[in-house]
Batch of 2 targets.
Target 1
Amino acid sequence: MPLFNVYPLYDVTPVKAKGVYVYDENQTEYLDLYGGHAVISIGHGHPKYVEAITNQVAELGFYSNAIQNPLQVKLADKLEALSGCKNYELFLCNSGAEANENALKLASFKTGKSRIVAFKNGFHGRTSAAVAATDNKNIIAPINAQQKVTTLDLNDIENVKTELEKGDVCAVILEFIQGVGGLDQANSDFFEQVDLLCKENNTLLIADEVQSGYGRSGKFFAFQHYNVTPDIISIAKGMGNGFPIGGILIHPNIEAKFGMLGTTFGGNHLACAAGLSVLNVIEEQGLMDNVKEMSSYFIKIAKTIPKIKNIKGKGLMLGLEFDFEVGDLRKQLIYDYQIFTGGAMNKNLLRILPPLTVKKDHIDQFFEALVDILDKK
Ligand SMILES: Cc1ncc(COP(=O)(O)O)c(C=O)c1O
């Protein structure tokens, strides 16, 4: 049976990975500055992670959400401690889209309203309401398009005010650093005003931290760079270091009711073991400090390269903007220099999303390759 052909693939076949490197079937080593799309947080094949998953699957890999699962409680407690998000409650699911889907549904349940305000170049996943709130017509099918979504410009606070005052908006969903769109960030005044307007208009603020969360921005959550209190925070990518797990942190002003949300696989024992070991490693290895240090190091070098026109993002969620499309540059980096990087909807932007364990010599290796390619251009 052929695979449904929806992914344009690079001709590389990784079979093994360790730390910041992946290896193909010929043992060729690739430097992973893409992190499997911002997923690899604590590094490939971290021994503590491997041990946690191995032990858990041997004990109990899965049982449904009909029984007590103390691992979910442990994960929630650890997440509260590391994120500093006190008093929020945790609902676990399996992916970023599912996290946002549940967040939007909860906002609609809570407010009794159904319109969503989202932003240009935002990306929130490929399911029903999440994809409708995503600014990409090519991935919104007619069945999704029936959702009521108003897409506004970042930083346009007047339009946010006008829309929320109409009284039918259940949620404002936003990325504090846009990922897929190309690392744009609104200014802090805008974020803080949006937060206030939501509170004044019985609209929930959903922080989509699927990509920017788990330390990637230099703080546990990207919204923590601002003075805002989201009602719901959605998480996924870095949470399981590759094990599929997602979730939402829910403010105590939203009351749970039996049956309101649910999932078969979400929060299973194996996923929780993976998620817990990720948080333990982030803490034990001081990875958030490493993010800050490596980010400054990366930006310092990037600033010395005149062909880089703009440096975007925060922490290890970074973008280098050029005055040309980077498709060929990415191919050269992979095939000639064995370095994975990311692209974005902004075709001139090279995205850098390494494991949070990346070190200076990896960054040096990247810039040597980049300068070599740019010099030959
Ligand atoms: C900000 C953001 N939200 C949601 C998603 C969707 O996550 P998933 O692909 O796990 O459904 C993504 C994926 O790239 C994302 O970057």
Target 2
Amino acid sequence: MSKGKWKKMTTTAVHKYWTTRINEEIMYYSSLKYIPTSSFKVGKIHPLALANSANQRDINRIPIRIKIATGTYILQTNRAAYNQNNVDPTCKLCDQAEESLSHFLLCCRALDQIRTPILKNIICKCSELLSLQHSNIHLDILLLIINPFHYACSVESENDISFRIEPLCRHLIYNLHNKRYEILSKIDLISSRRKMNFKVMSNGQQYRLILTKQEDFVLVGASPKYKCTVNQNANFLITNPLKWEKRGRDGSKVVISVLANVEAGLEQEYNVQPDVADFTQSFTLSLMQGIKEDYDGHFACVLYQWNSTAVLAKKTVAVHVIHC
Ligand SMILES: [Zn+2]
């Protein structure tokens, strides 16, 4: 037998072994449900993993794209399913629903700004492609993003998808992933700051103010409440007023309330609920019309010295308004 013939025979045997094994075992891996067995060609790179250019930025997008396609990208629902320590499957970004793959890719409102323009482009390009193929296939958007090659009906259409649709899907997935990590790392930073603040507050400052939040990420229209508590009695506060103020990122300052009295003209917008006890007084600020885009900035709770502008204590909550 010639060397070439032997080599060809061995390669065929190896390919046959892997094709049979993949076909037999794929049914046991539910995470691979978006990748049909017919799309595996042993010896050839799967088009989902193929680099269409030598551009490093495009190549960097491939690992995350593969994790999404093979069900190995870890979201809160995966953590909850595999963790025995009662992990909450709720999305940490929006707090509105369980963080499943479809929530992350299609629904999470905190990622809308990143998602909408790219997704529109994908749907538009894909509709063009399907109309060229004279195809009446119903588009499943989730499947389209996870594996657009599902809609390839010929070698030509696979090439079209490779160069026109798949790069957009990678772009979308990569940008969603980056935004998700950016928000999650801010949330982690806030919780670690809260722990630090707790230590600082326990050292007995004279005019201690406690604010329920130091930083908040809120969607337009949401109605958060911020409660400020001071360890002083009512007589002290009558002479040393506690004010809620709105501070813009440009340095602007508006007094919202003095104790529980909202300033004239702002009653439709703000409410301050007092909660009086012997040694502590709380003033909870609520936003009557929900969070508006121009609330992006800070709400400050400030304790002023009697008859002066001297500040005895101040706490602020940084409000990041998330646009949709
Ligand atoms: Zn979400």
